[in-house]
Structures are given as C-alpha cells and as structure tokens.
Amino acid sequence: MTYPSVYPTGATVYDPGKCWNGYTIYQAKELGALLVDMNGTEVKLWKGLHGFPNKVFPGGYVLGHTGERPNAFGLQDQIDLVQVDFDGKIAWKFNQWEFIEDPGEEPQWMARQHHDYQRQGNPVGYYAPGMDPLVDRGNTWVLCHRNVFEKKITDKHLLDDVIVEVTWEGDVVWEWHCSDHFDELDFSEEAKNILSRNPNMVPCGGGMGDWMHINSMSLLGPNKWHDAGDGRFHPDNIIWDSRESNIFAIVSRKTGEIVWKVGPDYNGSKALRNLGWMIGQHHAHMIPRGLPGEGNILVYDNGGWAGYGAPNPGSPTGIKNALRDYSRVVEFDPTTLEIVWQHTPKEAGFLHPTDSNRYYSPFISSAQRLPNGNTLITEGSGGRIIEVTQGHELVWEYISPYWGTQMHMNMVYRAYRVPYEWVPQLDRPREKAIERIDVTTFRVPGAALPGPKQVTAVEGVRPYQGDAALCVQVDADK
User: Tens digit of pLDDT for each residue in 348-361?
Assistant: First the structure.
C-alpha cells in the first residue's frame, strides 16, 4: 500500500444534508485533544490533554490523560485518566491503580490506563439518545495493565489486561484479570504451544509478553437480547476485544466468567465461516439502544497480522499467523453471527480483490453508529476519518494534518462525533458543503494544466473493456 507524497488535509468532502452534523474529537498527535466542526475548522484545543482515546461529555468536558510511562518500563501505560472542563481545569482524576517505582524515575501512583474507559450513564462512550454519561458523579470502568507470571500460559513475564471499576472518589470496587480466564479462551494446542514459547514478546519493561493486547472495553447497556431473556447480554456485562488473539468476548460482571465469545478460530462452524476471520480487530462494541442497529455488534476488522497457531509461509513461527491485507467494518447479530451490514473495499469503491489494499488500516481505528444510521469510521493508520451512509455513500471525509515528531505519521487512534449541544460554550458553527474535487483535473499551483497539446491516434488500436478497463488491445489484423 502506498500513499501520494502530497494530498489535501482537513475536511475534504462534506454533504450537510446527508451527514449527522456535530463536532468531532480526536487526538492531534503531540498537540492534544482537538475538536473540529464539519467544515474542519479547529474550534477548540485542549493542549497537552492526550487521548487513549479522548472523549467529550455533555457540558464541554473532555477526558484523556496527562502523561505516559517511559517505554523502557511499560507499554502504553498512561499515568492517569482525567476529566477536564472546557477551560482545562481538572474535574476528576484517577491514578491510584498501582504504585510504580521505575529505576531513575520519581516513584508515583499510576492508572496504567490503556485503550479504553467508560463512565456510568453511557455504555460505549459516544452519543446515544437518552444515555448521557455522568459528569459530576458515578463510577468509571477503566482498562488497565498489570505485570504477572502465569505458568499455565508461559514462564515469561506477561503484560496482562485488567478491567477495573472505580468510584467517583477513586476507590477500586471491582476487578477482572484476563490471565485468570486463560482456560475459557479456547486456544488450540498449537496456539498454546506458540504462546508458551513467545507470548508476543515486546522489549518494554525488560521484555514482556503482550499476549492479548485488549484494545476496547465497554458495557452492553440495555438491549433486546436481554429483554428477551438471554442472560449472556445482561446490560451490566462487559464486551472487550483482543488485537493479538483475534478474540472478542463478553464477561459477566456478576461471576467474571466469559459468557459469549467469537474467535480465536473462525473455522469451527458455518456461522463463523460466514462471518469471516476477524484479524487484529478494534473497537468491538454493542450498538446502544436508541441507535439504528441497536443490539448488534459493530467492529473495525483491521486485517493485517494477528493470532497464534499453525505456522504458514507468512508466519514461519506461528505467531501473528492470520494475515489479510485489507480492512472492513462489520455489524453482525451476536446471537446468529449473521452479518447485518458491512463496509468493505467493495463498498468503498475499490476493485476486489486486486485493489482491496487501498482500504486498509492494519492497526488502531474504530467505528461509531450515528443516530441517522450513518457510520463514522476512523481509518487510523492514515489519519482519515469518514462518514458513510447505510448505502455506503461517502458524505464526510477529514484527513488529520498533524504528524508526530517521533513517529512521523498522522495516525488517529479513535475519533468520536458528538452533538453541538454537548459543547455549549461554542456558538453553533455554519455548515457549508464541500464538493468532491475531481482529482483527474486538480493541479497544484504552477503545475501544467490538464490535456496534452498534441494528440495522435494510433492506427489499429482500440479501447479494451477488460476487468478494470485499464488496457488497450492491438488488432492483430492491422
């Protein structure tokens, strides 16, 4: 996959009549939490408030973190999780998960938060009618890290994923440790063998196995499945997904047991085969009540490389052995695994399979269901955020103009759309359509205008309408 060296950034496509209009929040690399309107105007920056991810709450509150543990000692460990008001004043803070004493560093309490968190009142962290997150009270669910040894998995040091429930006062009142549930994950003997030898070892912290790399966590919230008597989908239960194992699962808040799971093997039934392999997926969650598709699971299926199992030519050791060079967004019924809606390279307008890799974000990324049925998609690796209709029409496109200095990329971990009313400190912006540019005639200033000065027809050559209409065919009789 290649990109042009020069291309526009900011908002590049916008159809006000077909979009669900509001503000979009994302982390603009080292700058901080950035709020943009539908025309790409930067209306508010919370400088230095980084996001893993950033989320906006009603009243102009924003959540994020103020610092990260050095990679020499941890992997993606955020020092704290904070809620600030519109003016940047801290209204709530959590950091007392683990007291850390790294060599040469000032000892301090840390949250070790990574990838996700949720506030009571809203199960998924984005707008759903009638489910506003609480801003001055309530519990918060936080995805954290903890270093462990678990001999049933490996004799190596593991970076484990832990979900904690924290009161407004900062007390941890519930914990769930992923490594305690290894036997419930249904790894094959081949996968267990690979995990024992190499549980995705990373150099941080002197060498640790980032064996699961859970990258999203949310509550189910009220849903039709539980209303119909299916206890697996209790509103208080928690859904998470694991990038490295290709698993996503629902955990019972009452017992801690895994009560629903997809992966790591997608060949075990006809329903799984029809669903297709999820590889390195992100942001799996249940669409909240009040939004189109409520009760279905929505996930950004990255593709790329992930999983443990039998070696193959793309994975001689069996680690990261599932491979696919395109992405898709999938919405499916959790009771039947039937795909309800998906946005794949084909729907995005690319020739499948020869051109599929043009729709591809092999890491980070997300998808949010909007109240009008559209879907906001973050193609994270290329810093592209789009809104598409149910019929797959692209009605909004935004490219982040911010590149990092350490990692020279404009990647966006996850973006969210929120109502204008959630940030009352700002005047409602003017909405002006942005027509799609015809890239076949667009030139940078000073470049040649379209069209050759001389045209000569070649005798005996006629257009050839092949698979992609990209070729010409010479008449052999001429």
Answer: 999 878 899 999 99
- Whether 444 is in a domain gets the answer yes
Q: Measure the CA–CA gap between 149 and 162, rounded to whole angstroms.
A: 14
State pTM to two decimals: 0.95
Cα-only R_g, the chain: 24
The better pLDDT of the pair 297, 451 is held by 297
Report the CATH number that the domain containing residue 203 is assigned in CATH: 2.120.10.30
pLDDT of residue 473: 38
Q: What is the mean pLDDT of residues 408-421?
A: 96
Nearest to 243 by CA among 195, 278, 295, 290: 278
pLDDT tens-digit readout, 108-119: 999 999 999 999
Residue 85, domain member (yes or no)? yes
Q: 428-459: per-residue pLDDT in tens?
A: 999 999 999 999 889 888 887 767 778 777 77
- Cross-strand pairs, 24: 36, 417
pLDDT of 84 above 80: yes
Whether 219 is in a domain gets the answer: yes
Sheet of 416-418, strand order: 42-47, 32-36, 23-27, 416-418
Split into its structural domains, the chain has a count of 1
**Is 246 within a domain?**
yes
Question: Which range of residues forms the domain containing residue 341?
Answer: 10-452
- Distance of alpha carbon 66 from alpha carbon 444, whole angstroms: 39
Q: How many helices (H) and strands (E) does the chain have?
A: 4, 33
The single residue listed with the structure tokens 């010479």 is 474
What DSSP character marks residue 124? S
Angle at 277 between CA 275 and CA 281, to 5 degrees: 105
The dihedral through the CA atoms of 318, 320, 324, 325 has a sign that is: negative
Whole-number pLDDT of residue 454:
82
CA distance 298 to 331: 4
For CA atoms 198, 203, 208, 209, the dihedral sign is negative
Q: Which of 9, 7, 59 lies closest to 36, judged by CA?
A: 9
